């Protein structure tokens, strides 16, 4: 063969296959428009979340394009997927998940109940007692972050904890924002705060590593120490500092916002619904009467809080703290007959199934009885803590945190709302009007 033709073929064949692959991929991409560069549909999503109409907006997308469609969110090509099957997306880092499950195992949780009890009592004494009016959401965020710092990371009160809280809140404030990195934007403030949080956590990791080497502290002393102990099994390498920091930050976000929002909306519900309020108060006061003065709550006490937890689950169903989740594809993925290219992000609104009338009858009605037997619910329909094998390892931690907080709130205080507007917005977490200001009065100690 002519050498020139040979070279030409060698040059053209790769291009031919590249064009074929590109054509095939473009044909199999989900329907939809990615909108304007960088901005895409980000502003629209943020607007409908703030107006609390995001669910309706996504339902319109499903009607128009079907259960899978492409768009652009926060500067990245994105595929939106909906339905119960979408709630199964993603895989966890198995070693990290195993460490979290081990750290939060039942015998460890028993020890945390007493520490949480002390944290909640201290918080109420500092921020509630002697007050006539408080704003619930910011106080609950303070409480849950202090619990995280104390129990999960071993950070005691002081300047370090205060700086970490400040930087963490700034980081959270810009996580769902347009990725325009200019000094005055929320995105820029969030990036800088995130860098500082990571620096502080890396310093803490180094300190914990030295302490572990020198003193041989228990691997379950705190979460960071537990993650440092992931090594030596099946020839696995130890987690890097960056991996530990990444997973610690995930736990911080989940533990801080989920519990604080849940407790806040339970407080609002109890002020609005006398019947639900009476049931919770009766259950909690019965437990309080069985305790001697100053005695801490125990695992057995929490096991008796069945009705209170059903109220909490129904609150999570109707007011889920996490509206949607993102995952990044590490390789080309076939889903629903379409191609999701490597590097794209997948977005799904985990809570859309919560208000599906085919799953929950009269979904707009608050009914704790739905959770008399959670096993009867269809798989991946109630996913406030994930579902199936991917259920959140911190589920039991959040349960203890919530039940202990509600116990002391309802046994020590009465309250009423300072407004009649029961709406809320998302930024991205649900925020009740004005952060839920309430008038409070103390109860006589039982």
From TrEMBL:
Q: Name one GO biological process term.
A: sterol metabolic process
Q: Which InterPro entries match?
A: Cyt_P450, Cyt_P450_CS, Cyt_P450_E_grp-I, Cyt_P450_sf
Mind telling me which Gene3D superfamilies this protein's record contains?
Answer: Cytochrome P450
The record's principal subcellular location, in a coarse class, is: membrane
GO annotations of cellular component type: membrane
Where would you find this protein in the cell?
A: Membrane
Annotated residues for binding of heme: 392
Q: Which UniProt keywords apply?
A: Heme, Iron, Membrane, Metal-binding, Monooxygenase, Oxidoreductase, Signal, Transmembrane, Transmembrane helix
GO molecular function terms noted in the UniProt entry: heme binding; iron ion binding; monooxygenase activity; oxidoreductase activity, acting on paired donors, with incorporation or reduction of molecular oxygen
Q: Which domain of life is it from?
A: Eukaryota
Transmembrane feature ranges:
none
Q: Which residues form the signal peptide?
A: 1-25
Membrane topology, from the record: Single-pass membrane protein
Q: Does the keyword Cell division apply?
A: no
Q: Which cofactor does it need?
A: heme
To which protein family does this belong? Belongs to the cytochrome P450 family.
Q: What is this protein called?
A: Uncharacterized protein
Q: Which organism is it from?
A: Camellia sinensis var. sinensis (China tea)
Q: What is the lineage of its organism?
A: Eukaryota, Viridiplantae, Streptophyta, Embryophyta, Tracheophyta
């Amino acid at each position: 063969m002519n050498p020139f033709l040979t070279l030409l073929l060698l040059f053209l064949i790769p291009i031919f296959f590249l064009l074929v692959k590109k054509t095939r991929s473009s044909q199999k991409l989900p329907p939809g428009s990615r909108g304007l560069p960088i901005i895409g549909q980000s502003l629209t999503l943020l607007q409908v979340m703030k107006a609390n109409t995001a669910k309706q907006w996504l339902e319109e997308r499903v009607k128009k394009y079907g259960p899978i469609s492409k768009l652009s969110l926060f500067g990245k090509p994105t595929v939106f997927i909906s339905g119960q099957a979408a709630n199964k997306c993603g895989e966890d880092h198995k070693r990290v998940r195993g460490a979290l499950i081990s750290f939060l195992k039942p015998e460890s949780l028993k020890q945390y109940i007493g520490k949480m009890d002390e944290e909640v009592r201290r918080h109420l004494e500092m921020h509630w007692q002697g007050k006539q009016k408080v704003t619930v959401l910011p106080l609950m965020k303070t409480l849950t972050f202090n619990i995280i710092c104390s129990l999960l990371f071993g950070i005691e009160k002081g300047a370090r904890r205060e700086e970490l809280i400040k930087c963490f809140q700034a980081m959270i404030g810009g996580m769902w924002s347009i990725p325009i990195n200019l000094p005055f934007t929320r995105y820029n403030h969030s990036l800088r705060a995130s860098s500082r949080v990571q620096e502080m956590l890396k310093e803490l990791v180094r300190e914990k590593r030295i302490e572990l080497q020198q003193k041989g502290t228990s691997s379950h002393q705190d979460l960071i120490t537990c993650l440092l102990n992931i090594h030596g099994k099946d020839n696995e390498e130890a987690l890097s500092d960056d991996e530990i920091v990444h997973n610690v930050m995930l736990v911080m976000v989940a533990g801080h916002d989920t519990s604080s929002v849940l407790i806040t909306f339970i407080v609002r519900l109890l002020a609005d619904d006398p019947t639900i309020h009476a049931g919770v108060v009766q259950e909690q006061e019965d437990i309080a009467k069985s305790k001697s003065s100053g005695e801490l709550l125990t695992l057995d006490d929490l096991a008796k809080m069945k009705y209170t937890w059903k109220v909490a689950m129904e609150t999570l169903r109707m007011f889920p703290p996490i509206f949607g989740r993102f995952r990044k594809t590490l390789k080309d993925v076939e889903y629903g007959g379409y191609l999701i290219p490597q590097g794209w992000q997948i977005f799904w609104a985990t809570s859309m199934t919560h208000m599906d009338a085919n799953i929950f009858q009269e979904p707009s009605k608050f009914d704790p009885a739905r959770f008399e037997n959670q096993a009867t619910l269809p798989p991946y329909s109630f996913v406030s803590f994930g579902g199936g094998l991917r259920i959140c390892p911190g589920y039991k931690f959040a349960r203890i945190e919530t039940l202990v907080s509600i116990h002391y709130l309802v046994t020590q205080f009465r309250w009423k709302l300072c407004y009649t507007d029961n709406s809320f917005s998302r930024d991205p977490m649900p925020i009740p009007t004005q952060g839920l200001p309430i008038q409070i009065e103390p109860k006589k100690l039982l």
